[in-house]
Design brief:
By secondary structure, the protein is of the alpha+beta class. The chain contains ten helices and 18 strands. The protein folds into two domains: 5-134, Creatinase/prolidase N-terminal domain (Creatine Amidinohydrolase, Chain A, domain 1, 3-Layer(aba) Sandwich), CATH 3.40.350; 139-351, Creatinase/methionine aminopeptidase superfamily (Creatine Amidinohydrolase). 33% of the residues lie in helices and 21% in strands.
Length: 362
């Protein structure tokens, strides 16, 4: 029988008697809560998920979230006041000494609260155990990610129709966001990047009122969510013939992406893809213009703890979902980035996003 997510987590949490995931409130909401409990909705502020050493899961919620909680998994414990919540926590952690917390998201106040309620526990960092658990996706997670990628891929294919002289970055970004919702996305994976002309040389540009001109680059980095899982992709197009240097840069980036993706497989060193792509770019006239890493993990959060960088010492595993996004950035001229969402498999990888990767002039 396939192990539950809670069972997988506690196996990875070596030496811990339990792991506590807690949602303090915006912005301190931990996606690990929904990962473990598998609820399709709900906010779950002031709620707890407790995984014990036997792999059992207690989900401690208030009445606002009771119905949403029962759509997921775990032993649902509904508290009606502070005292009831404290008693549920004491019961869930009875006999536990070393208790893991997600240091990526837990507030000092909430950890202190649990320590005060459950006396004698030792706080342990469960961040590494959580990262290694959520990074390997099960079939349900992979299907949700594929759905998100289908939605964003449809928008990517429509982008040439969105472009015309005089349209602004903000206008195209708004159209993309609305379209992803129309196609079934539940929200953006992150704020859409719509960058024209010289602004495309800024990897994290925020859409502004700049209007598209002939010869401009039009770079779009975007993604949607489906059942809480993210897609992430970048497509770069041109309105009219761009400067020749950008045409050359586009072909180098495309070659670099293919070289990096070829290194994605079960058991691969995570830095291999970056190094392969970076060599292509640094052996060209564009040496030194690839100023970020080749990729990162993707899941319920658009950035999960897999680093596909030249310094990464991680190993890729079947079930990892990662980005592949080399780029070239020339300040004052423009930037090129091509990005896909990739599933690592036993025998290689599967590209989950889909659009025309050839140089596209509108």
């Amino acid at each position: 029988m396939q192990k539950t997510r809670a069972e997988r987590l506690i196996e990875n949490a070596e030496g811990m008697d339990a792991v506590v995931i807690m949602n303090d409130g915006e912005p301190f909401l931990d996606s690990t809560f929904w990962y473990l409990c598998e609820q399709p909705g709900g906010v779950f502020e002031s709620c707890f998920a407790v995984v014990r050493g036997d792999g059992s899961l207690d989900v401690i919620v208030n009445p606002l979230e009771e119905e949403s909680a029962r759509e997921g998994v775990g032993n649902i414990c509904v508290y009606h006041d502070a005292k009831e919540r404290e008693n549920f926590l004491k019961d869930a952690l009875k006999g536990c000494k070393k208790v893991g917390f997600n240091t990526h998201s837990s507030t000092h106040a909430m950890v202190s609260y649990v320590k005060r309620i459950v006396e004698g526990i030792e706080v342990v960092d469960a961040g590494k155990a959580i990262d290694s658990t959520v990074s390997i996706k099960d079939a349900k997670e992979i299907e949700a990610t594929k759905q998100a990628c289908r939605i964003s891929s449809t928008v990517a294919k429509e982008l040439p129709d969105y472009l015309s002289e005089g349209v602004s970055e903000k206008e195209v970004a708004a159209r993309m966001d609305n379209r992803m919702r129309e196609l079934g996305g539940s929200g953006n994976a992150f704020d859409t990047i719509s960058a024209f002309g010289p602004f495309s040389a800024q990897p994290h540009h925020m859409p502004c009122d700049y209007r598209l001109k002939k010869g401009d680059t039009a770079l779009f980095d975007f993604g949607t969510k489906y059942d809480r899982y993210c897609s992430d992709m970048t497509r770069t197009l041109f309105l009219g013939r761009p400067p020749e240097i950008l045409e050359r840069a586009y072909e180098v980036v495309r070659e670099a992406q293919l070289a990096g993706i070829a290194e994605y497989h079960d058991g691969a060193n995570a830095n291999a893809a970056d190094l392969a792509a970076r060599k292509i770019i640094d052996d060209s006239e564009f040496k030194g213009t690839f100023i970020h890493s080749f990729g990162h993990g993707i899941g319920m959060d658009v950035h999960q703890a897999i680093s596909v960088s030249p310094r990464s010492d991680q190993i890729l595993h079947a079930g990892n979902i990662v980005s592949a996004e080399p780029g070239i950035y020339i300040p004052g001229v423009g930037g090129i980035r091509i990005e896909d969402t990739i599933l690592v498999t036993e025998n290689g990888c599967e590209i989950l996003t889909d659009f025309d990767h050839s140089l596209t002039i509108v």
